[in-house]
């Protein structure tokens, strides 16, 4: 069995969504129930559900393993320059619950600070994102304007149940000062995959988000030294009035 040709973005291209997310007004429980019933009866929503099922069947975990075997665990080397603010796209919305127990959205966690956002779908990919996190935290540990936000995604509901049972272990082995910025999402994120260039769920991804929630830089796989150096240098450009 051979892997399908990889479809990856061109390094340096703008990724994300073209316009900022506009969050809808909060719904009452009655409104939520009515909306869920409308979705059940909606032909368009049913077609979307079928499309997701077909995609999941056609793009299996096994295919990601074969892709990793044939093509390696890095899609491309990260760009050396920021995406210009006038060209940059925006971070999509992904909701979830933090290790601190707060229901929130990744855009709320990232807003107002220069953020290294890491995205993982499994334990293996944490080796990749940690290789970017370590030099980032070493460089900006004392900065009030830079932060790391971790997004842990589980799209498979059976595996999601296992992850939920493992949350006490995850909390114990994650420093408490990181709980508020560690977001867990259960469910489909096909929109995020497409807009952010996520081609294989076994690879870890990192994104440099400016305080206006624009995606200004990105990387994947294990960081090489030049990528880590570029990440730190580019982050310094985004931090306002950084003291020398």
Key features?
single chain; 244 residues; alpha/beta; seven-stranded mixed β-sheet; 9 helices; 39% helix; globular
Q: Please, could you describe this protein's structure?
A:
This protein is of the alpha/beta class. It is 39% helix and 16% strand. It has 9 helices and 7 strands; from the N terminus they run H-H-H-E-E-H-E-H-E-H-H-E-H-E-E-H. The chain has helices spanning 29-41, 43-58, 61-71, 106-110, 126-140, 157-165, 167-172, 190-196, 225-238; strands spanning 95-98, 103-105, 114-120, 146-154, 182-186, 205-209, 215-220. Strands 2-1-5-4-3-6-7 form a 7-stranded mixed beta sheet. Helix 5 (126-140) packs across helix 9. The termini are far apart. The model has no long low-confidence stretch (mean pLDDT 87).
Offer a quick outline of the entry.
This protein is α/β, with parallel strands linked by helices. Helix content is 39%, strand content 16%.
Average pLDDT, rounded to a whole number, is 87
Stretches with pLDDT under 50, minimum 5 residues: none
Strand content: 15-25%
The CA-CA distance between the termini, in Å, is: 54 Å
Q: Count of DSSP E strands?
A: 7
Computed over alpha carbons, the radius of gyration is 18 Å
Helix percent band = 25-40%
Shape: globular
Number of H- or I-type helical stretches: 9
């Amino acid at each position: 069995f051979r892997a399908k040709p990889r479809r990856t973005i061109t390094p340096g291209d703008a990724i994300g969504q073209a316009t900022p997310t506009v969050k809808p007004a909060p719904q009452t429980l009655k409104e939520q129930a009515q909306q869920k019933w409308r979705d059940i009866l909606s032909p368009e929503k049913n077609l979307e559900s079928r499309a997701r099922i077909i995609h999941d069947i056609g793009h299996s975990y096994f295919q990601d393993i074969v892709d990793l075997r044939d093509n390696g665990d890095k899609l491309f080397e990260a760009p050396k320059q920021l995406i210009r603010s006038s060209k940059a796209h925006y971070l999509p919305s992904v909701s979830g619950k933090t290790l601190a127990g707060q229901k929130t959205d990744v855009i709320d966690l990232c807003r107002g600070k220069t953020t290294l956002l890491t995205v993982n779908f499994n334990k293996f990919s944490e080796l990749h994102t940690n290789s970017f996190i370590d030099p980032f935290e070493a460089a900006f540990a004392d900065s009030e304007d830079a932060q790391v936000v971790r997004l842990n995604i589980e799209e498979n509901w059976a595996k999601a149940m296992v992850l939920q049972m493992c949350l006490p272990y995850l909390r114990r082995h994650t420093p408490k000062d990181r709980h508020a910025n560690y977001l867990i999402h259960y469910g489909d994120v096909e929109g995020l995959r497409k807009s952010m260039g996520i081609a294989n769920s076994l690879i870890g991804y990192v994104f440099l988000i400016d305080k206006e929630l624009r995606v200004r830089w990105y990387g994947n796989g294990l960081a090489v030294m030049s990528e880590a150096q570029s990440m730190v240098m580019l982050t310094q450009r985004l931090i306002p009035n950084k003291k020398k």
